[in-house]
């Protein structure tokens, strides 16, 4: 059970050099005791490439993507990028993929049609390359054929593929073909009953190992709850109008995304993290730790590092 943090693409914008900034953060959080650093995909930089650089520059840190939308990428391209990142990070890279949404698809000129079916074909082709070094897949929605080896030297062990799946169909596909999931804005109740349980069942039916559950949890340690709550509302209202998120938010027992942002002192945050582990999370990754002040963010990272070290010692 590990604890890490995730950075949005916007978190690196104020730095003079986004790659240098990400490396500096990676070194910083390793010193604090955190286990992993995950990068969101935007339009400004490539998150797999960024993870590869940070993984190479910061020994001992797991790096991952949370998550790369599949609509604008071909599985053969993702396979080559991900294997390169795994080699660069010396086996500490995890590939997080997302189904995206209608507006993301439209921004790339792609149709958001039958996302679960597209995910199945995408994962079938991708995992073929990762498992065998080649692919010969001709599906209804995509074709992936490798006329030569697609394996990358040094990309060992076989990198884990996680999917930001929350709906029943996507979870079924993920359980059958991927190594786990990284849900965002799924409270402990929804995580246990509507993600961990169906995903584990699907993996068992497919004869696969128990899936990894990387719970992405927005939150920050702060003494100014009213200001933090206002910031949380401003930064999460967007998700209330996305059907997949609206469903999981409701299943979490709250009415809006902002209600799932964890705010409070160290004891409050630590107790909430434990609730996610109790619900079946194998990893807890805090997001949006920059909601308030740099001092609050530092306080949050310090607490997460202490909790991570404590879990490592207990193990």
Automatic annotation (TrEMBL):
Ranges where the Luciferase-like domain occurs: 15-282
An annotated Gene Ontology molecular function: oxidoreductase activity, acting on paired donors, with incorporation or reduction of molecular oxygen
Pfam families in the record: Bac_luciferase (PF00296)
Protein's name in the database: LLM class F420-dependent oxidoreductase
Top-level taxonomy: Bacteria, Bacillati, Actinomycetota, Actinomycetes, Mycobacteriales
